[in-house]
Amino acid sequence: MEQERTRTSVCCRFLPLFDSTSRPWPCHADRRRRLTSWTARTFEVDRTRQVVEQQIGAMGAVVYEIGLYKPEADREGQPVMIPRIWDVEGLLRSLPWLRLQNSLGRNIYIRPKGEHNLSLVDDLSAGTIQRMKTAGYAPAVVVETSPANFQAWLKHPRALPKDLSTAVAQHLAKEFGGDTGAADWRHFGRLAGYTNRKEKYRQDNGFFPFVRLKEASGAEYLQGEPFIESVKDAVQQAAMRRQTARVLAPGPRAATLLKDIESFRRNPTYAGDGTRIDLAYAIYALSHGLSEVQVAAQIRTRSLAHKGSERRQNEYVERTIKKANELIDRRRPVQSLER
Questions:
Q1: What is the pLDDT of residues 247-257, one digit of tens each?
Q2: Sheet strands (E) in the chain
Q3: Would you tell me which CATH number, out of the four given (3.40.190.170, 3.30.70.1790, 3.65.10.10, 1.20.140.10), belongs to the domain 31-222?
């Protein structure tokens, strides 16, 4: 017994007292196991930081919006989406918290804040990524969101206004077979280093696959400038065709065109409330591809003199369009953040 007491005391000499009748304190073997576990967790955290730094460095934005998405959270009395806005330093400081939320079932998404020079192309194969490179559309970032399924961020030579950015994203998705439902100017993409918590990807061992950063060159694609100009021309031509169609279309064909704001003004649902009518029309028109300029022009077809000066009228129109965009964007993540 004395020898056993001596061995234990040597092993645990940091203890001031040792009661041989109580449960022995951990010795070297236990501490080695704990140290190994701690080292593994530290390595995982460091690896996540390294991957996130590479991804956001290649994306190149100054401020990011982070979305923590859990579709079943409403059944738990929690928000489905938790939004956060951080600069690079704030994002890196928050990685442990994101790791915790990911372990609790939330998927971690990222996008640049404000207008930017990136387009996300979602739901791609490895073969399509290679085809993009061959055609001069090499992505700045490639993320494997689930086994053999990829998202690509393309970097343009300059920041694009919202309307043009959405049109460019739509053209890229159509050209390379991506998800057009995820193609707009501010769509979320997955943040690498965290797991894809969609239930269909749960592995046999009960774990979920990591979202992996496959490439992070941060380079602009070669076809950037000519491609943007071609999309800009296509958008302008399409707008002209729509305007011409509205002017020339006879009565029976008008039903096949988009509704104009007058149809909303005649709708008894809105009881003549101009503010509700303007917002409802803006949501409808923007969702169907009309530009903000076109929507503003339609809103101004009624007198806004009661809003005050010209400046106040302009602010009202801008607020209405901004609110419409926000409401549209709230719907989109829930519809298409499933990859």
A1: 544 444 433 46
A2: 63-69, 81-87, 107-112, 118-124, 141-146, 149-155, 189-190, 212-215
A3: 3.30.70.1790
